[in-house]
Write a structure and sequence with these properties.
Elements: H1 34-44, H2 50-62, H3 67-71, E1 78-79, E2 84-87, E3 96-99, H4 102-115, H5 133-146, H6 156-168, H7 173-180, H8 189-195, H9 197-200
Antiparallel strand pairs: 1-2, 2-3
């Protein structure tokens, strides 16, 4: 019987683009703890633009906003009398109405006064233009460095932080799905699977 010939795959003559490594190769985790969020908010309150930066971090975290959703926020999405904000979701997400806390309302009013009542966008650069996605990303990265974190942070970590924090507080998966704006519940279960109190407190159940 003749031996089977093993064909070698043809080598591409075209230059290959190096693939981006996994997020875990760059960061140990993709979220911040509630204590770290508080530290980030404190740092934002001491920046050159304390009202804008603190509100930016607060809204991104409290409402689990993607950075594109964050920079696209406009003043007319906020209803101060009802203390609520209309959240528009990217990536074909489900829009919803979220309640606003007192600290968010106070910072919003202050920022509107600073921006001028005729400004459509909520978050502006120092030049008065709408803050870009890249600008917001770099802002949060700098705040993380100023806060003294030993690992780099990025804007999307604030969205993840909200998901894990709420799951850890016992919010059910369906409610969390609506809050996060996920069309598929499979995108939500990652938070509840890791934060499940039954796992975290497994040694106390016996």
């Amino acid at each position: 019987m003749s031996a089977m010939v093993q064909l070698k795959p043809r080598k591409s003559i075209l230059p290959t683009v190096p693939r981006r490594r996994k997020n875990t190769d760059y960061r140990q985790r993709e979220y911040l703890t509630e204590a770290e969020i508080e530290k980030l908010l404190t740092t934002a309150g001491k920046s050159r633009n304390p009202v804008r930066d603190r509100l930016l971090v607060l809204l991104a975290y409290r409402h689990a906003l993607r950075v594109s959703e964050l920079v696209d926020l406009r003043a007319d999405q906020f209803d101060l009398k009802a203390a609520q904000v209309h959240i528009k979701r990217a990536k074909n997400g489900i829009p919803s109405i979220h309640g606003l806390q007192g600290d968010e309302l106070r910072l919003f009013r202050q920022l509107i006064r600073e921006n001028g009542e005729h400004s459509r966008f909520l978050f502006l650069s120092e030049r008065g233009a709408p803050l870009s996605i890249d600008g917001a990303q770099k802002l949060i990265e700098r705040l993380g460095e100023a806060a003294g974190f030993k690992f780099p942070i990025h804007a999307h970590m604030l969205r993840h932080s909200a998901g894990y924090a709420l799951a850890g507080r016992g919010v059910d998966t369906r409610t969390l799905q609506v809050f996060m704006g996920h069309r598929s519940i499979s995108n939500t279960t990652v938070y509840t699977a890791i934060a499940d109190k039954r796992i975290r407190n497994i040694w106390q159940t016996r």
